[in-house]
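In response to reviewer comment 3 from the previous cycle, which asked for concrete evidence that the modeling workflow produces usable outputs, we include below a single protein chain processed end to end. The sequence was submitted unchanged, and the resulting structure tokens are shown without manual editing.
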Amino acid sequence: LLALLPHVARTLLHADDHKVLQNATFALTTMVRVAPEHVADYDDGAGFGALMDCLARLLAPDMSDEGALFSGDLLSKMLACGLAERLGERIGDVLRAVFDRLVVAELSALIQGLVMVY
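The workflow returned the following structure tokens.
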């Protein structure tokens, strides 16, 4: 499962098709749900950096609502599975990014997923 992490992260960072982004986000969320510490510790901690990079792209205001659809699920799963402590001082930045994304979101399913983070 972890062998797929770099490929899924690369897909999330470079794909533009919303269906590809949704499936890659779902795959990454599943990895976090199944083995959060292994994902975060992958490649001497680079896994957590990859998670944060993917999340940043998904929460970017210029990402389509369809592409960002499962970003709230991913972040909620990260927080619920014990990765919140790894955010440390970045938690404020992450919550601000969620808020900023909520401001421009129009798709009700995306809004619901992002609100669930709070």
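The chain has seven helices and no strands. We consider this sufficient to address the reviewer's concern, and the full set will be provided in the supplementary archive.
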